[in-house]
Every structure is written in C-alpha cells, then in structure tokens.
C-alpha cells in the first residue's frame, strides 16, 4: 500500500459524525476535476475512497452511487469512477453546498467550526497525494482552478502551514516540501499515525547521517594519521641512512625507533608508550625537531654538486 493510501485509510476512520461527513463531501465535490451543470465526475484508484463516497452521499443526500470500475492502463490496478448526471441530484448538490459550477470557491458557511479538518481531508481524498517519506518529503494538492488553489492555501495558512503554488500542465498545484508542514497537515486531517511514521523516519535518517559523518570523520582522521606517519618515517629513515639514529638526542632517538616499530599508532598512543610518557603535543613537538633535522641533512647531502 502506498503512503498516500495509508493516509487515506487512517483519515477514513475519523469521518464519523454527520458534520464531518458533510464537510468531507463538500471538500470532495468542490475540488473534483469535473463539476458542471450537467455532470459531476469523481474518480480514484483507492478502494477506501470508493467506499467513503457512498457513505457520504448516503449520509448527506440519502442516495447510493454506483461506481464504474475500470483497469488502469499504467499499472493494471482498478480505479473507480462515479458519474452523476441526474438533474435533480445535481441541483440538490449545488443548492445544499451553495456551489456555482462556473465559479467554484470555498464557502466557509458550509463548514462547521469543528469540521474544517474533515473538509481538508475531503480535498486530500480527491486531489491530494503524499510521497513515501523514506524517499522524500512532498505533499501536494492538484486543484482544478487558481481560485480554489488560492483558497486552499489560505485554509492551510490558518493552521500555520505555508504551501507553495506552481502551474503544472495547466493545473494549479499547491505543494509542501517541509517535513514539519507535512506533519502538521496530516495531523490536522486526522492521520496521526502517519505523522508518527514520518517522525520515526526522520529520526532514523538523522541517526544514519550522524553515523555517516562520524565514519567520514574517522576516515579523514585515519588518513591524516597515515599521511603524517609516512612523512615521519621517511624523515627518520633519511636520518638513519645519512648519519644514523645515534646522532639524535636520546628522547628523539627513542621516539624515532618507536615510530619505526609502530607506524599505525597515533601521536597520543606513541606518547603513552615512551619510557617517560608525554602528551600528544609533546610528541608532535619532537617530530617537528626530527623533521627540521631531516631538512637540514637534505640540504647538506642533497645539494647540487
């Protein structure tokens, strides 16, 4: 089941009293793609939605609708089409909801104060979708007109959600990319469990990102230690070749020999293994002296003849 259908299934269980059913059906009718004086067409690939439509029409208008079920050419899944052409029912719908088929816009008088969430749920049922949050954060409403898209944006602003509007294939699309906006919208519509799923996914993503950062940091530190050790060993071997390690002071000679024995150790670990342990900075200071001696010897022995 897609994440969008999980949201629909959860919302479906919240549309229980008559006010919510009235508001939910209003959202569906107002935002369906085809609404004219001669017909209303409502379609969906979601079986829960098909069941909900009949329940809503029976509750509000005391009628039952029959869906024309077809098979999608894209994915071979069934989708449901409800076509209303009965003139009396069309007039009743327009009268009850005060809808002008030629100029649809939200009429807040149709929505009880405690049912705006059901109205928004109806809009999501008919023209909304949300991508699986494991892939990306994206919720959108593909609305049938610029006015309805703008009206929907105002509804969302009232609950603190700021959506963006774009024109896609002559359809006005209101979309959300911010995960918190998506969470607030789903929670408001009644899909709390789906909201928790997004939060859990965010936590897992954050943990993975932190783990990756730690691994990258560790890898970078290892590379740094290896690079430093290679240069230190090269300096020590050069000194040993040209003048012998005995030419070094006892403390530098001890560190040089320890480094040759343990090229994998960090400065801190080297310092801990010295006869008289010293700090990391102390080890680094001694290696700087070794480097300076090596540089002087290179100048002495490698000068052009």
Structure description:
The protein is α+β, with helices and mostly antiparallel strands. The protein contains 11 helices and 8 strands. The strands form 2 sheets. Strands 1-2-4-3 form a 4-stranded antiparallel β-sheet. It has a 4-stranded antiparallel β-sheet with strand order 5-6-8-7. Strand 7 (164-168) and strand 8 (171-176) form a beta hairpin. The mean pLDDT is 89.
Secondary structure: elements and pairs:
Blueprint: H1 3-12, H2 18-31, E1 34-35, E2 40-44, H3 47-61, E3 68-71, E4 78-84, H4 87-97, H5 116-127, E5 128-130, E6 139-143, H6 146-158, E7 164-168, E8 171-176, H7 179-189, H8 192-242, H9 250-261, H10 267-273, H11 280-301
Antiparallel strand pairs: 1-2, 2-4, 3-4, 5-6, 6-8, 7-8
Helix pairs in contact: 2-3, 2-5, 7-8, 8-9, 8-11, 9-11, 10-11
């Amino acid at each position: 089941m897609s994440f969008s259908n999980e949201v629909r299934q959860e919302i479906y269980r919240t549309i229980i009293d008559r006010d919510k059913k009235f508001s939910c059906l209003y959202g569906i009718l107002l935002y369906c793609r085809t609404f004219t004086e001669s017909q209303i067409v409502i379609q969906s690939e979601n079986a829960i939605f098909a069941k909900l439509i009949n329940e809503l029409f029976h509750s509000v208008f005391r009628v039952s609708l029959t869906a024309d079920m077809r098979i999608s050419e894209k994915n071979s899944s069934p989708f449901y089409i409800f076509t209303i052409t009965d003139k009396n029912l069309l007039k009743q719908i327009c009268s009850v909801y005060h809808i002008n088929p030629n100029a649809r816009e939200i009429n807040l008088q149709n929505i009880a104060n405690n049912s705006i969430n059901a109205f928004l749920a109806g809009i999501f049922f008919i023209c909304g979708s949300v991508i699986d949050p494991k892939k990306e954060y994206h919720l959108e409403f593909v609305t049938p007109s610029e006015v309805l898209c703008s009206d929907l944006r105002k509804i969302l602003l009232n609950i603190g959600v700021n959506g963006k509007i774009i024109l896609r294939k002559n359809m006005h699309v209101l979309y959300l990319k911010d995960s918190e906006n998506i969470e607030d919208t789903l929670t408001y519509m009644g899909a709390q469990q789906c909201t928790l799923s997004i939060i859990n996914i965010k936590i897992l993503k954050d943990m993975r990102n932190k783990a990756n950062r730690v691994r990258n940091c560790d890898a970078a530190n290892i590379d740094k230690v290896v690079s430093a050790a290679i240069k230190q060993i090269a300096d020590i071997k050069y000194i040993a070749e040209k003048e012998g390690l005995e030419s070094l002071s006892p403390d530098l000679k001890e560190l040089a020999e320890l480094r040759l024995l343990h090229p994998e150790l960090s400065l801190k670990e080297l310092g801990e293994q010295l006869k008289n342990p010293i700090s990391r900075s102390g080890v680094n200071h001694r290696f700087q002296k070794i480097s300076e001696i090596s540089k002087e010897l290179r100048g002495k022995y490698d000068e052009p003849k």
